[in-house]
Amino acid sequence: MTENKTLCSSFDEIPDKKGNSVACKTTYLYDDIPIHKHDHFEIEFILNGSAEHWLNGKSSLVGAGDAIFLKHSDIHSFRISKKPLVILNMRLYISRLSGDLRQLIISQRAPCIGHTEGSGIDERFELFRQLEHVISFGGKYREALITAYTTIFFVKIAELFRYDAGGADEVWTNNYEYISAAIKYVNDNYMHPIKLSDVAKSISISPNYLSEIFSQHIGYGIKEYLTRLRCMYAQSMLEDSAHHSSITNIAESVGFESFSSFSRAFRKLYGMSPSEYLKDYNRRNVKQQDAP
Fold this sequence. Notes:
It is a single chain. The protein is an alpha+beta fold. Helices cover about 45% and strands about 20% of the residues. It is globular and about 60 Å long. Mean pLDDT is about 85; it is low at about 1-15 and about 165-170.
């Protein structure tokens, strides 16, 4: 395999040139990727390296051959253990996609993580490279080819997920605009007090209906989603060596009303208190620095 590689020390935005519906890039990463959220769907296919992947507050190990599919609601970060972490990154801007492809992507349950090996990695890499070429150089049938290659690549990635891919999420498919708008509102305002009624009002639906469709699709309610989001941002701030705020100030900055509520929520998500997490993180960093 050969790549036109982008070297970067942290995650950087893929430029969305000329209103493209799909953006692709092969990236070599050497530093941890901090917590971030998206305004799009995303596929990340790992070619090489390994990392601890935090997704919606839960940790798993990922490496070569792993595919990750993310939707708007997913908040994630990478702690790289084997450098460089080489990722094929595809971003899908739903509003710009053709109807059938848009429906295919929206109906795919997410987040999902799958795995392939050997020739399966090479096959998906080659499809990705062909799509990159079409996006960059196009030609007379550029848009049709983008749709075709994106559909094939997406289907080949979906084959890797560990469940019956035929089962679409009907709640998400039928209420995509409402759910994604609610997620965007929470993601943009998590540091402020937020009520279910605030979110519902911002998207012009009833609180009861929003609560029902959000819980059915995400698996838990807006309040828990908000709590997880705040804890993940707090986790990132605790790990940031350049951040010198006290744990109490961190709790306040991510939107918790009290330190006790922050501590309870953080322990529930990560299995230890914020101060215990910080000590453990610093201890692991010292060991890594001392290692030959």
